[in-house]
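Shape matters. As here.
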Amino acid sequence: MTNENELFNLVDFGEIKWWSGKDPNTIEGYPIQPLKDKEGNFYWLPMAESEESEPHIGVEWEEPRDIYELEVIYKSDEFVPKPDLVKVQYWQYSWLTPAPERLKGTKRGWIEEDDPYHGRWITANVKITANKNKHIYSFEHLDVVELPDERKIEEAGNYNVFFRKTLKIRLLFKKRTN
């Protein structure tokens, strides 16, 4: 049994992927196969749809997960990006919804859930803690700057969360400009 404050690796329950397409009707996910270095360690590289696209890597689950932070261990110093060149994005459609017990009457019934075919990528507000090749991307509290649908924020009331409920999440690497 796990403590409710204990974090654990959700990657084990999902699939490492990259995505092509710009809108829900054209987005397709593709598995990324691990590579193996000389020491026998596995690692994954971000992928891009084209030369013009930003490379990215992420995880998709069969059902939405509450994500508090992403801990990324880059293979070596040569792969470590500058923190300002990385965006954390999550898939969002129906979340943020109020907890059913906060609703009145018949509204307490069915709560919409995200799926891979509806939604959009949202760039999250994160705090980055970097220590050599290990970066931790922790979510800041959710607000209207990140999720501009004021109706959803209002419905959720004082829902000041430091997690994101999502079906898929990715790291998007901005291209370096010299």
Notes: The longest helix spans residues 150-156. The first strand starts at residue 15 and ends at 20.
